[in-house]
Amino acid sequence: MGSQGVANENNSVRLNASETKGKTITCKAAVAYGPGEPFVVEQIHVKPPQKLEVRIKILYTSICHTDLSGWLGENEAQRAYPRIFGHEASGIVESVGEGVKDIEEGDIVVPIFNGECGNCSYCKSEKTNMCESFGVNPMKKVMGNDGTSRFSTIDGKPIFHFLNTSTFVEYTVVDSACVVKLHHDLSHSLKKLTLISCGISTGVGAAWNTANVHSGSSVAVFGLGAVGLAVAEGARARGASKIIGVDINPDKFIKAQAMGITDFINPRDEERPVHERIKEISGGGVDYSFECAGNLNVLREAFLSAHQGWGLTVILGIHSTPELLPIHPMELFDGRRIIGSVFGGFKGKTQLPHFARECIHGVVRLDNFISHELPFEEINKAFDLLTNGKSLRCILNM
């Protein structure tokens, strides 16, 4: 096996890459061989990075609902097996490919599924955080350089990539556009900064960047998983006066209160539509509603919960195709607006390093989101926790 990342007494990290640079590494990975089949933790081969690619020693990774739906193969068009899932992680750069200028060996980094090349018209625009070449693409399963995978089984069979990242492995190879360099003084916080790779940035950013929640405003969050609670945390940090949480699992309410939720609604408690109850609580509707469940009926309720005249609904839930918006065009003439948000509107390489500092300084309380920690070998247990609604974020220690 190749060289390992080492945590010292202060939990900072270092890496000796002299033995592995430019070579194929043999290391552990959790490989999915079919929809919903248990992950197989086994030795695989990881090739060196090619032009504008980076190879990262993963130190911590966590599990998101997007990993769960991808592993289950809920969208048949996106299925590809065998595959290495995972897209929330942190680690240290083992080596870089030709042409990589902004990332160096030994840098502490987080991979991101929604990249930023910095050169395309999208990246140069202040109106979007999308990237023309390296934006989120669930259909992509190989590297763009040559259309092949950097992973293979011990007997040489290709293993597919996932969401520009593939972090359920000791070493991964990603495009340099999908790597965010953090300042070395944050190395002691890498474990919790793992969460800014996806869920926390997506939720907090939706409140800050997409909606621009203001002090004294009212907010409704539909779905109190990690992303929904990150929305609540972002709204709390912005000074929202009323944050209404909606979920059918009452066990989530105690945790949600610590994230800033002020009022709770369980749709199953009474037959009245949720939006009617929210209008009563908020005095006519909320300024901002966030749909984090990936359910069209929930989206409809979120939209109707927004205040006529100015209410904004932000879509964060992942919806399967070919379902369409449950909204009549004339309903938009009431002044309500609706918009989608990808990665919380953050431009990853440009804005995430500052966001990481804000998190470590306590503006966003990352510790509240880590509900479990397990060794990497227990990844199937971690997925069981998430499937059964018992886990918010489970950190897997590599």
Considering the chains and any ligands shown, give keywords for the structure:
single chain; 398 residues; alpha/beta; Quinone Oxidoreductase, Chain A, domain 1; Rossmann fold; 2 domains; 7-stranded mixed beta sheet; 6-stranded parallel beta sheet; globular; alcohol dehydrogenase; alcohol dehydrogenase (NAD+) activity; NAD; metal-binding
Provide a descriptive summary of the structure in words.
The chain starts with a strand and ends with a strand. The protein is built from ten helices and 19 strands. The chain has two domains: 17-198 and 346-397, Alpha-Beta Complex (Quinone Oxidoreductase, Chain A, domain 1), CATH 3.90.180; 211-340, NAD(P)-binding Rossmann-like Domain (Rossmann fold, 3-Layer(aba) Sandwich). By secondary structure, the chain is α/β, with parallel strands linked by helices. Residues 1-12 have low confidence and may be disordered. Its EC number is 1.1.1.1. Its cofactor is Zn(2+). Residues 53-182 form the Alcohol dehydrogenase-like N-terminal domain. It catalyses: a primary alcohol + NAD(+) = an aldehyde + NADH + H(+); a secondary alcohol + NAD(+) = a ketone + NADH + H(+).
